[in-house]
Write a structure and sequence with these properties.
single chain; 11 strands
Length: about 120
């Protein structure tokens, strides 16, 4: 099993920045592909960023590309989501996600952290 705990959410003004942190445990962190997804009220759940096991490959949804950066520190069993130039439409609950390798789904979730961007 993999346990994921997010932190770093909060209220920020439009144009501001936040950094989300996700601490993982229960499995060798460097064996996990990691990601972030989000869900806003009344909208579908969207996967927004992913990073490979060694951090060498990243991928982003078009809605956050150029503004958000996913990174990881395998020594600290932690993945980050740096969010810059935040917009009100980024308001959502953000979830840390993990999968045990290619061919598997991102079946492990954290409890979520609320990000609210005011206009």
């Amino acid at each position: 099993q993999v346990q994921l705990v997010e932190s770093g959410g909060g209220l920020v003004q439009s144009g501001g920045s936040l950094r989300l942190t996700c601490a993982a445990s229960g499995r060798t962190f460097s064996s996990l592909d990691m990601g972030w997804s989000r869900q806003a009220p009344g909208k579908e759940h969207t996967f927004i960023a992913a990073i490979s096991q060694n951090g060498g490959s990243t991928d982003y949804a078009d809605s956050v590309k150029g503004r958000f950066t996913i990174s990881r520190d395998n020594a600290k069993n932690t993945v980050y989501l740096q969010m810059n130039s935040l917009k009100p439409e980024d308001t959502a609950v953000y979830y840390c996600r993990a999968r045990i390798g290619a061919g598997y789904g991102y079946d492990y979730w954290g409890q979520g952290t609320q990000v609210t961007v005011s206009s």
